[in-house]
Write a structure and sequence with these properties.
NADH Oxidase, 187 residues
């Protein structure tokens, strides 16, 4: 797939099934992610791969977060939260490990660099014939979820990226004309 085709045709999948990217494809996808724009060459990106049985552990982290933040949650809601870990056969958690002491590169730029690496994962997945969904939610901002994933409490999760093969279920998503989003600064 040509790069321009990946950019113009990429869309989030509605549902993902096996197969997920194999180890070789995943390594290529992550190599692409590590080419994201990076002011100061800080390489702030961190990637946590969740697959196989580890998805149950990830689901447990999500459910525990929901229980902590909503003590009156029902058993059904907890199970729904736990099952989010099984939306796809492979999950890549993308985070930024920001260094606040480097004043030349504000933390927001470090976080945006991690966001750019997440987008590269989405594009590389599409270019290799896979599909992806980018999710966050309040669990992405929870210290206990971060530490449960092996990240630092100060790390910033920019997304839970679900990767696999598009199930074929289609959601109608209106495409906004890019021209509506552009203004030009006059002289």
């Amino acid at each position: 797939m040509q790069a321009i085709d990946a950019l113009l045709t990429r869309r989030s999948a509605r549902a993902l099934i096996e197969p997920a990217p194999d180890q070789g494809a995943l390594e290529l996808i992550l190599a692409c992610a590590a080419r994201a724009p990076d002011h100061g060459r800080l390489r702030p990106w961190r990637f946590v791969v969740v697959r196989g049985a580890a998805r149950a552990r990830f689901g447990g982290l999500l459910a525990a977060h929901l229980r902590r933040t909503h003590p009156d949650v029902t058993a059904e809601s907890l199970e729904r939260e736990r099952q989010k870990a099984f939306r796809a056969p492979l999950i890549v958690v993308v985070a930024a490990r920001c260094n606040a002491t480097i004043k030349k590169v504000p933390e927001i730029e470090q976080t945006l660099s991690a966001g750019a690496s997440a987008h590269a994962i989405m594009l590389a997945s599409a270019a290799l014939g896979f599909a992806a969904m980018w999710k966050t939610g309040s669990a992405a901002y929870d210290t206990q979820v971060k530490t449960g994933l092996g990240l630092g409490a100060g790390d910033v999760i920019v997304g839970f990226l679900y990767l696999g093969t598009d199930s074929g279920e289609r959601a109608t998503v209106p495409v906004r004309d890019w021209r509506e989003l552009v203004s030009e600064l006059g002289a």
